[in-house]
Every structure is written in C-alpha cells, then in structure tokens.
Design brief:
Layout lengths: L1 E8 L1 E4 L5 E6 L7 E8 L16 E4 L15 H16 L2 E5 L6 H17 L5 E6 L9 H13 L1 H16 L11 E6 L2 H16 L9 E5 L23 E6 L4 H8 L7 H4 L11 E5 L23 H4 L1 H11 L4 H6 L3 E3 L6 E3 L1
Length: about 350
C-alpha cells in the first residue's frame, strides 16, 4: 500500500534528482515550491514517525519561469493542483493541513500521511495537501519555541499566497473540468499562528473579502490568542472564507499552558476556548475535548497516549471520530441528538461525551 500527500512549502529546497527540503527558509520568504511525498505501508498513524519518514519518496514539481512571456512559464503549483484535481475527482473532498511547532520537513510530511490514513480508516478518504513552514525541528525549549514562533509568523505571507493560488486555480478551471469536491483546512498548534499571518497577508490584496475557499476549518490545540476570532487584525476575517469553523480546546493542554505562562503569551485559544461570546460569529462551533484526553496507554494502544494533552487531534479515537463527522458535514444539533456531545458548563459550547 502506498499513500501520496501533496505539499507546498517556503522551505529551502536542496539537491537535484533526489531533492531534500530542509529547515531553512527559501531566500524569498514567501516563495513557494510544490511537490508530493509517497509513503509505503498502512496504519502509519499507529507508528512512530521515526520508523517510516526516511522512506518517503519526495518528488518536486518542476518549475520554469519565463521573464519574457508569463504564459510560457511552467508553474509547480499548477502541476500539483492538476494532480490534486484529478485525485479529488475520485475521492471527493480535500484537506489542507498546517502543522505545528518542532517539525522537520520529513516529520511534517509523515504527520500529514498519518492524518490522511486515519481519516480514510474513519470513513473520510480525502486528498491531503500539506503546507509546511520552516520549523527548525530542533526540540522543545524556550529558545526553540521563540524561534519557531517567529518562523511561523514569517511564513504567513507564503501560506496566504498558497490559499490565493488555489483560489485562482479553481476560478481559472473550466466549469466542465471542475471536481466540485469540498476543500477543508486543519491547523494544529503553532500552525494557527502562521494562519493569522496568512489572513493578514491576504488582506493586503483583497481587504476583508477573503475568498470562500473552505467548507470546514478546524483549529485544533490552537497556539493563538483567545480573542483571535473576534479581532479583525487577527484571524476573524477568515470567517468569511468558510462555511463553518470548529475550535477544539483542552484546558489540560500542558503545551499551551507552557505557552501561557513560560512564554508570557495571552490565554491560548486551544486551552481556554474563545474569549467570551461577544463578537463571536455564529459560524464558530467550540468543542471541549478535556473529558476524553487519554494520558497513558500501553501495548498495542501506546500510540494513543497523550501525556501533554496536545496531540488529541490525531491520536484520540473519540476526537478523531468527531473530526471525521465534522468533515462529513454533521451539524452540532446532530451530535446532541445522538448523545455524542452535550452542552458545556457555559454558553452553548460543547463537551465530548
């Protein structure tokens, strides 16, 4: 069994026939290269990244730009988007994934293929596109966190360009050739910080008229300010660009607690949820996962352990089920009717049952 994920990145590409993609920025911070990575094996989401990521086969989309005639340019983005369109004709929907802190390129690609495979195992086989920013992948610590945070922020314009490129590709595709699948977005942890930069970068081109590219947007364990969905200078304008946004949070998230206290950040969206309901769009659904976090698991289920309470979006069966159903279009009321969620202790936020 082989699984291919597609990627766009502002990382620096090295090598020729056998390219490698490192932890440095492309010389132009918002410059993008596109490609794909193919992994052999099934149930990779149950395995440690180190056991399979070195075997991933990287293929970079060729790119040749013409200064004299833009029409003669060969764009890597178009080549990959054409492949994505062809795959979506078979599978239907696609998911764009933006990873968090402390990921090398291969680790990010490995995480993306794990997500693709667990989605498929849960009944939502989707085309997976990864946006990978130049996280240093240098381990966890105060200094590495601060460095990665700056890298994520600096990568916002590149992510914004990728979203606008995808929108332009769809607009320029003849109606008869469109796949009509839905496109979703999943951002984890510090990937949400890059997303804020992307939203603000897009505003320099389109103002608040963010293109409605996304059906579902999922913000999981977001290392972002708790008022970000209510502030125009943060992520709030993105709400125009989606049908619904689901925020998953866990007040026991130790990684975000460190971000709160050790790093001196404001309350984090992924630890406390949004800052009240004033100004919060009706498009936003807020889900507390704390009751279902698994702190310790052993044996064949060891991969489901989440000692920091920060990785539930990928290794917690109950949360994964909820995410799959969100991506399938289930409404909040449907979850309640089936007793999968109940109202939280305040407002109309939800708790997993």
């Amino acid at each position: 069994m082989a699984t291919t994920i597609y990627f766009g990145t502002n990382r620096k590409v090295t090598g020729g026939a056998a390219p490698e993609i490192g932890e440095d920025f492309h010389p132009n911070l918002d410059e993008l290269r596109f490609g794909k990575v193919t992994f052999a094996g099934k149930d990779l989401y149950k395995k440690d990244l180190g056991s399979f990521i070195d075997g991933g086969q990287i293929a970079l989309a060729p790119e040749q730009l013409s200064k004299e005639d833009a029409e003669k340019s060969k764009l890597g983005s178009k080549a990959i988007f054409d492949e994505v369109r062809a795959e979506m004709l078979k599978k239907g929907d696609a998911l764009i994934f933006v990873h968090g802190y402390d990921h090398s390129f291969r680790e990010a690609a490995g995480r993306a293929v794990q997500i693709q495979q667990w989605l498929a195992a849960g009944g939502k086989d989707m085309t997976l596109l990864l946006f990978t920013w130049p996280s240093a992948g240098a381990g966890v610590g105060r200094r590495t966190y601060a460095d990665d945070r700056k890298r994520a922020e600096a990568s916002g314009p590149a992510l914004g360009r990728a979203i606008l490129k995808a929108t332009d590709f769809i607009r320029n595709t003849p109606r008869a050739d469109r796949c009509d699948g839905r496109i979703h977005l999943l951002c984890h942890s510090m990937g949400n910080w890059a997303l804020r930069g992307a939203v603000q970068a897009m505003r320099t081109f389109v103002g608040n008229n963010i293109p409605p590219l996304f059906d579902e947007i999922i913000l999981a364990a977001a290392d972002e300010d708790d008022d970000t969905l209510q502030a125009t200078h943060k992520v709030a304008p993105l709400l125009r660009g989606c049908r619904r946004m689901t925020v998953y949070y866990n007040h026991q998230d130790l990684a975000l607690k460190a971000s709160d206290y050790a790093m001196g950040n404001p309350d984090r969206l992924g630890r406390s949820g949004p800052r009240g309901k004033d100004g919060l769009s009706a498009k936003v659904s807020v889900v507390n996962v704390a009751p279902k976090v698994i702190w310790e698991a052993k044996g064949a289920n060891a991969w489901t352990a989440d000692p920091t309470g920060h990785q539930y979006f990928r290794n917690n069966a109950r949360v994964r089920q909820d995410i799959v159903q969100v991506l399938q279009g289930k409404l909040d009321g449907d979850f309640v009717a089936e007793e999968q969620r109940r109202q939280n202790d305040f407002g109309d936020y939800w708790r997993l049952q």
